[in-house]
Amino acid sequence: MKRVLITGGAGFLGSHLCDRFIKEGYHVIAMDNLITGSLRNIEHLFKLPQFEFYNHDVSNYVHVEGHIDYILHFASPASPIDYLKIPIQTLKVGSLGTHNLLGLAKAKKARMLIASTSEVYGDPHVHPQNEDYWGNVNPIGPRGVYDEAKRFQEAMTMAYHTYHGLETRIIRIFNTYGPRMRLDDGRALPAFIGQAIRGEDLTVFGDGSQTRSFCYVDDLIEGIYRLLLSDYSYPVNIGNPDEITIKEFAEEIIKLTGTTQKISYKPLPKDDPKQRRPDITRAKEILGWEPKISRAEGLKITYDFFKNTVKK
Ligand code: NAD
Ligand code: UDP
């Protein structure tokens, strides 16, 4: 049986990855220190003999018994309010954590995939963003702790590939949403849906003209799975190119939820990227991947999930 280690396995994306690899017949080891994740996301897997959970901070030395075929490093705070609250831990898990896991991958002769991000492009001057763009990041701004940790993570991963011949994969993930996001994680979608359900106005930052491109989680997981099993070691963008302004996005949530609340405008956070849309030419060519789930479909599934979890 192939064995896969998924760090951040109790988080939003990590828990969906655990489900996918269990479904594909793998033995899954989830590792997480629960700093932003929750055991609720994986509690349905605890009864399975092919699932193990380690409560561990991967910024400290990582030890796993037995062989490992694949390591997927997803541990990291991912929402701006999370990484602003725990900036040092964010820098550590992207740097020290990545180094520990690369060391483990080398010792186990495992293939390692890292969860990088569209944030490596910063507030981009190239639109849409393709993988050859180097980005526009403020290293000492509030988002720098996340962006630079991820850029270091990519550099370290390429170095292990080049100098140690380690098999590595780098995915640059664009804004992804779906069930198991935390309602209080401050990201636009859970913030808006939570506000609509609680009967509060939807807080749009700035004038709402900044854009994002939202990908439904199942599409992303398929892209990760294909990239891991491919033989391509350079970065690949995975995201949905359907771009929308944040104001229009809030209006879609108002319509979807039927709320009578309005939009209330708040100051734009510092260094908030003005536009973001993935160029997915590479993913299409190399992985034969493109998103299948429209925003209308994905938002409906996500709203149904949140309706059952929000306390009015
Ligand atoms: P999340 O906060 O739901 O999950 C992250 C998980 O990592 C949590 O369970 C947390 O407890 C765990 N974790 C954090 N630091 C740890 C440490 N030092 N040791 C062990 N576990 C630790 O976030 P998510 O949205 O699922 O993001 C997962 C990964 O995907 C992150 O690496 C993030 O940077 C990346 N990513 C996500 C998105 C997105 O839109 N969701 C976009 C780009 C990149
Ligand atoms: N945003 C907003 N209101 C909120 C939360 C976020 O207008 O309550 C904006 C935020 O400023 C950004 C966009 O929505 O321009 C997406 O924010 P998110 O935190 O989801 O992701 P990221 O900025 O990391 O892409």
UniProtKB/TrEMBL annotation:
TM ranges: none
SUPFAM superfamilies per UniProt: NAD(P)-binding Rossmann-fold domains
Cofactor(s), by name: NAD(+)
Root EC class: lyase
Keywords in alphabetical order: Decarboxylase, Golgi apparatus, Lyase, Membrane, NAD, Signal-anchor, Transmembrane, Transmembrane helix
Keyword Heme: no
Bilayer topology term: Single-pass type II membrane protein
Domain NAD(P)-binding: 5-301
The UniProt record lists the keyword Transmembrane: yes
Protein name in the entry: UDP-glucuronate decarboxylase
Species of origin: Rhodocytophaga aerolata
